[in-house]
Design goal:
Structural class: alpha+beta
Strand content: 15-25%
Radius of gyration: 27 Å
Helix content: 40-55%
Number of helices: 10
Number of strands: 8
Order of helices and strands: HHHHHHEHEHHEEEEEEH
Low-confidence stretches: 1-11
Shape: elongated
Strand order of the largest sheet: 1-8-7-6-5-4-3-2
Length: about 350
């Protein structure tokens, strides 16, 4: 004889016969409510925003938004909640388990932008990962709902896990990954003409560099780069939009042949809200270590090579490092195109006056 369930057992899954009998009534009720097909997605997205509010700690402190416990679990939780709420209405397809959490995570990220707890740069970079992890979480919850009697217990477990890990993850050191990117271009100008363009850039027009992906996703545009000499060093001061500034300290200088600099930041180099806290240069998670330019005469022109060394330090370097490399490679290409345009224009004007 089948064991009789207690009247107080509200967690049984699948629902008891009485609840199943009421299911058609509930579905009819939901169909008459506005936007009812989208309620599971809205609930999932709101849960994600709430979790993001919890993970608002400063970089390196408990409950920081760049923690692995947040990056991996929050989109999975959004996906799991979306599927769980939908399954409470009616049985869903495996296809639903994929697309609904995907969309819910996109809405979740959009919501963090709307209430201004996340910046555009990080939102664009992270949304592919969140969408994929959200779909995985939705598939797992869908399987739990179909194959087990404890979907609610599973949901509680996955929700509480990042809250526990977020308080202890600071005890785990961040893995550091160093990388370098290089790009080369041939410019129809002399090494001297190119050298002067690298050292001093008084006015950079937006349309000269705004094609770079970094600038398109929200990094303020570079405005100037001026080199000056102190008693013991050459320093190139860079200014950008939103009052960002920093120094490039030249550590190797070989006239018209080679230039290398490291970076020096100040307490006010990045004003509040100029960049996401977890995306600033020299910060807890990302840095450009140095940049070098090599100039080699080549026929009537000059080969210009740029090399950047960078660092990423996250619990998801497997994802962050390729993104950083892609963005920096593109930035190098735009910078080289800028120097080619400026140098060749100056060369043409010089030749025209002779």
């Amino acid at each position: 004889m089948a064991e009789k369930k207690s009247d107080n057992d509200k967690t049984a899954w699948p629902p008891p016969e009485a609840a199943l009998a009421e299911a058609p009534k509930r579905r009819r009720l939901f169909r008459h409510l506005p936007f009812s097909p989208w309620w599971p997605l809205a609930v999932g997205a709101l849960a994600g925003v709430a979790l993001r509010l919890v993970f608002s700690g400063k970089p390196g402190s408990p409950y920081a938004a760049m923690m692995g416990s947040f990056i991996y679990f929050s989109p999975a939780i959004v996906g799991a909640i979306t599927v769980y709420v939908a399954e409470r209405q009616q049985r869903r397809s495996w296809k639903y388990y994929l697309w609904a959490p995907f969309v819910a995570n996109c809405v979740y990220v959009l919501g963090t932008l709307l209430i201004m707890i996340e910046g555009l740069i990080c939102a664009i970079v992270i949304i592919p990962l969140f969408a994929a992890l959200g779909s995985l979480g939705g598939l797992i919850m869908g399987a739990v709902c179909r194959l087990t009697n404890w979907p609610k217990h599973a949901l509680y477990s996955i929700v509480i896990l990042p809250l526990i890990l977020g308080s202890v993850e600071t005890n785990i050191s961040l893995p550091e990954r160093l990388g370098a990117v290089e790009r080369t271009i041939v410019i129809n100008a002399t090494p001297d003409e190119i050298w002067q363009q690298i050292l001093n850039v008084p006015n950079i027009e937006p349309d000269e560099i705004d094609r770079a992906w970094l600038f398109r996703i929200g990094v303020p545009l570079t405005k100037t780069g001026i080199t000056s000499q102190t008693s013991d060093e050459h320093v190139r001061r860079v200014t950008m939009g939103k009052n960002i500034y920093f120094d490039e300290v030249i550590t190797d200088w070989r006239d018209h042949r080679y230039l290398r600099w490291t970076y020096r930041y100040y307490d006010d180099s990045f004003p509040a809200y100029a960049l996401d806290d977890h995306a600033v240069l020299g910060g807890h998670y990302f840095d450009i270590k140095d940049t070098s330019y090599t100039l080699m005469p080549q026929g009537d022109g000059t080969e210009l090579k740029v090399r950047m060394q960078y660092r990423v330090s996250t619990q998801f370097n497997w994802y962050a490092d390729p993104i950083a490399r892609l963005l920096l490679e593109n930035l190098e290409e735009i910078n080289l195109a800028y120097y080619r345009h400026r140098s060749e224009l100056g060369h043409t004007q010089k030749m025209g006056t002779n």
